Each structure stands twice: as structure tokens, then as C-alpha cells.
Amino acid sequence: MSSYDFDFFVIGGGSAGVRSARIAAGHGAQVGVAEERFWGGTCVNVGCVPKKIMVNAAEYGMWAEDAAAFGWDISAKGHDWAKLAAARDAEVARLSGIYDKLLKGSGVTTYNARATFIDEHTLQVGEERVTAERILIATGGTPMRLDIPGAELGLISDDLFTLKELPKRVAVLGSGYIAVEFACLLRGLGAEVDMVYRAPMPLRGFDEDIRAALVEALTAQGIRLNPDVLPTRITRAGKELLLGLSTNFVREVDAVFFCTGRNPNTAGLNLAAAGVETAANGAVLVDGEHATSRKHIYAVGDVIDRLNLTPMATATGHALADTLFGNRPRKASYENVPTAVFSSPPIATVGLTEAEAAVRGAVDIYLTRFTPMRHTITRREGRKTVMKLVVDQATQRVLGAHMIGEDAAEIMQGIGIAVVMGATKQDFDRTIGIHPTAAEEFVTLRTRAREAGVKAAAE
């Protein structure tokens, strides 16, 4: 019999922690989980789920405007923010409750409390001390503000879901996933939006053709882009906020959102008491098995700041539980992970960008840009679809697939399976397309647009 209270204790009740705890318990382990804020973590409560509901809400306004082109007499009489918020919050509460029920149904002991380390096997959980043979840190990340004067006047991403009404004029600081999504949904719901970011284009790290198409789309929907600009300060002037910019201009707005990154949520865990090492930004350092500097303490998800995506966190948490308690050692791969940005229009991608692939050797680029059938009728600007395949010249394996356009995320899930399996361009070519769809373009790309990385291949 173990001398510990638990075989496995999980700090954090988000996607990664809940999955790992449930699987471990299913393998017969005695498991405990502590969550101090809300079950389901960021994704369910202040991330993926409520954000996607608001993205959906913004889309209906555009569809209502477009309906006339198809013969419908529909008028959009304005948006009811409170009604949307109530529906969104009810769904979030339902899902959060399910997480708690799933854990208890699996025989996991749950604690609605903060957990901190006392030593490498002992935790203070609320008013109680518990011991565990193995411990998992799955505390996720937390939004950060820039260190500028008046930063406290700005909002973080969590705050979107507690606003009582739509701010009419908004400045979104940043150009990553969250910034782009927030800018689009706020604009779609009727706000005037400025994006302020230090890069020349949004979505650093994404394929350049997709980034360029996004700039066109954002501009077409009336989002004002301020590239190569830094915010310098925020001051209050009556009911307004004044956002100072490095260009010496000032924007008068009702709200400023800091969408400028997230920090690993390790503050206050007292990791030093357990001997767990962290990076400068607080990320927990782990090896290839997700073990920390104390080999019985593990970490997965955003807290390790490796690939901050909910499905990735869930997959690694599941694999860890199978490895530790299921006699099924395995890993979840960080390569070829499909992902999406729920912008307007949405973006989806899997595998290498052209730039990443070109560094490795010669690649063929297949690229198409077209107006989807819906918008040949609506004539709406900024709704071009761009699709791209990055193909290794030597093996003809598809190394990357990228898309901006309606239903991109739904389409890319299937493409992701093919890329993970190692499909070649010829596999794509002999697949019959579903007509008429945008998706069929991925299997009808016949003409190579260009080569890249030839110099690298020669070297």
C-alpha cells in the first residue's frame, strides 16, 4: 500500500488536468485534482468556447446583410449584447459543470481550492495538506499587460466576457490569435476597431501568403490597422481613454484590450520548495517525457509554453496518464498539429510554412486564390479564399497546408489527417473533389506556383 494520500495529484482543472486525471483514475490510480478558479480552465470559461460563440454571433450580422443578394428581405435591427451574453454564459456554466461531474464520476477527489507545494511530495490544498507519489502541474497561462503607464486602465482577454455592453470604439493591442479574433468579432458586432501592433503584418509565424490575405480581409471589413506601432501610454479623459502611440498620434477609445501574450501561470505555486526549475518567463521546464527537474513531478499544457493549444494540452495529458498508470507508454507529437484562427474569414493551417520548409530544402509551392461561390453573388469585399500546399520536391510529401477562407477550420481537420499520415501531392491529386465546394481546390491544384528553398537543397 502506498504511503501517500494519492498516487497522482493534478494542480489545475483545465483541459489538460481533467483529461489526465480521468484517464489515470480509469487505470486504477488514486487521483486528486485542485482547481482554484473554475473547472474547464481558460478554454471553457474565458477562451475557446465563449469566444467561438461570440464569433458565431458576429457572423450572423454579415449573413443578414448578404441575404438580400439571394433574394431575402431581411433587415438587421441591431445587436442585443445582453441576450448574447446570457446565452453564452449559460453554455459556459453547463460545460464547466460537466467537467466537475466527469471527474467525480471517474472516482477522482476534487478540491475547489488553490494548491501550493510544501515539498516535492506534499501540497497545501486550501486548508488541507495532502501527499502524492506523482504530481502534475497543469495550471495553464494568464493574460499579460504591457508595461506602459496607465496599463491598469486597459482590459485583458478575460474581461471581454464580463462586459455589460459593447464598447463602441476599441483599440486591440497585439496581432496574434487572440488579437485578430477579438478585432474581428468586436467589429462584426458593431464596434469601431483599431489594431495596434509592432510587426509589419499580423500573425507572426504563420505563412506569409495567409498573413497578406488577412491584411486585405481586415482592411475590407473596416478594421483600422496600425502596423509597426507601439502603444506608449493610456490615460483617462472623462469617459474616454486616450491611447498614446509611438507615432505621436493619440486614439480616443472606449476600451483598450491587451492581447499581447500570456504568461505561464506559475506564480504562487512555490515551485522552489519542490525543486522544480522554471524558465525566465515562469514556464516549467520539462524533458521529452514532460517530467520536470524532479522526475516524479510533471507539467503539460500552456504552463510549459511550448505549443499553447487546448487539444495539444489534452492530448499530452492523456498520453502521460497512459504512460504512468496504463502500462501504455506513448507520446503526443508536437509536429503537424492542425490549428485555426477564428478570424473573419477564418484561417487554418497544418504543418510547415513555406519559409520553414525552404530552410530544410527544395519545395514546390501550389497556391490558389479565388472568390468562393457565395461571394460571387454577394460581391462582399475581402472574402477571397487562399489555399496553399507546401510540397517536398524530393519525396513529394505534403509538408504544409494553409488556408484563409470560409469553413477553413472544418476543411483543415481532414487535411490534417492526410498530412500527419505523410500523404504525397500525388495522393491529393488522385483524390476526387466534392463539387461544388471550396475544399475541392485542395485536390485540384495542378500547376506549381513557384519553387522555394532550392539554394538550401543545393548546399
How would the blueprint of this fold be written?
Blueprint: E1 6-11, H1 15-26, E2 31-34, H2 41-46, H3 48-66, H4 81-105, E3 109-111, E4 115-119, E5 122-125, E6 128-137, E7 141-143, E8 155-156, E9 169-173, H5 177-188, E10 192-196, H6 208-220, E11 224-226, E12 231-237, E13 240-245, E14 250-253, E15 255-258, E16 262-264, H7 271-274, E17 297-299, H8 310-325, E18 339-341, E19 347-351, H9 354-360, E20 363-370, H10 373-378, E21 385-392, E22 398-404, H11 408-421, H12 425-429, E23 450-452, H13 454-458
Parallel strand pairs: 1-2, 1-6, 2-3, 6-17, 8-15, 9-10, 9-15, 10-11
Antiparallel strand pairs: 4-5, 5-6, 7-16, 12-13, 13-14, 18-19, 19-22, 20-21, 20-23, 21-22
The total number of structural domains is 3
- Structural class, by secondary structure, is alpha/beta
Superfamily (CATH H level) name of the largest domain: FAD/NAD(P)-binding domain
Q: Segments where pLDDT lies below 50 for 5+ residues?
A: none
| Straight-line N-to-C gap | 60 Å
- CATH C-level name of the largest domain: Alpha Beta
pLDDT averaged over residues: 96
Largest sheet at a glance? 7 strands, mixed
The value of Rg in angstroms is 24 Å
Shape: globular
Total helical segments: 13
Strand content range: 15-25%
At the fold tier of CATH, the topology name of the largest domain is: FAD/NAD(P)-binding domain
Helix fraction? Answer: 25-40%
| CATH architecture descriptor name of the largest domain | 3-Layer(bba) Sandwich
DSSP summary, beta strand count = 23
Brief overview:
This protein has 459 residues and is an alpha/beta fold. It is built from 13 helices and 23 strands.
